[in-house]
Amino acid sequence: NQDELVFEWVDGVIGNHYPEPSRSLVNVEKILNRYLEVNLYRGEHLSDKTKVFPTEGGTAAMVYLFNELKVSHILEAGDTIAINTPIFTPYLQIPELNEFKLQEFNVSSDESDDWQLVDHKFEELKDPNVKAFFVVNPTNPTSRAFSDHALDKL
Asked: Taking every annotated instance into account, which residue ranges of this chain make up the domain Aminotransferase class I/classII large (predicted)?
């Protein structure tokens, strides 16, 4: 409904109300999900069951994510996480902060493999001590999207 969409946007710009739900405006989420379904979900129909949480940037998203994983007790101090590198430097610093105290190891990609995760790197992720694997796709700073093969392996 175009009228609902315009009202939602105008109301959001004016700032008379807190957004409901707090993570994304209803109609904006529908638009974002349709876009993501075409460009990210790889043919899977996920738009009806995916909740979008827009943030003011990638670093903020990582901070929110780490905070939520800590508060939800999914990650605890001392847990081991894997991070695909190279990656934007602040993403490497967040897990080391005193409030998280996570152990991390890098699952590195290199230029000789066109910055792709190669098969033997996936073996490193089978370690049962690894509680989470953090990746950015497309990668930053190399600006390479993971291949279909790498995405299927993930």
From this structure: 44-154
pLDDT of 21 reads 65
| Cβ proximity of 58 and 82 under 8 Å | no
Please check whether residue 51 lies inside any domain of the structure: no
Residues 97 and 127 in one domain: yes
Residue-level pLDDT at 13? 87
Annotate 85-128 with DSSP letters as a single string: ES--HHHHHGGGSTTT--EEEEEE--GGGTTPPPHHHHHHTT-T
| pTM for the structure as a whole | 0.71
Q: Tokens 């700032």 correspond to what residue? A: 15
Q: How far apart are CA 29 and CA 22, in angstroms?
A: 11
Q: Which of 153, 120, 123, 124 is nearest to 137 (CA)?
A: 153
- Is residue 65 within 8 Å of residue 59, measured between CB atoms? no
Residue 53 within any structural domain of the chain = no
Chunk the chain into consecutive blocks of 10 residues (it has 154) and report each block's average pLDDT, rounded to whole numbers.
91 81 83 88 83 85 89 92 85 79 85 83 88 84 83 83
How many other C-beta atoms can be found within 10 angstroms of the C-beta atom of residue 109?
23
- 87 and 125 both lie in a single domain: yes
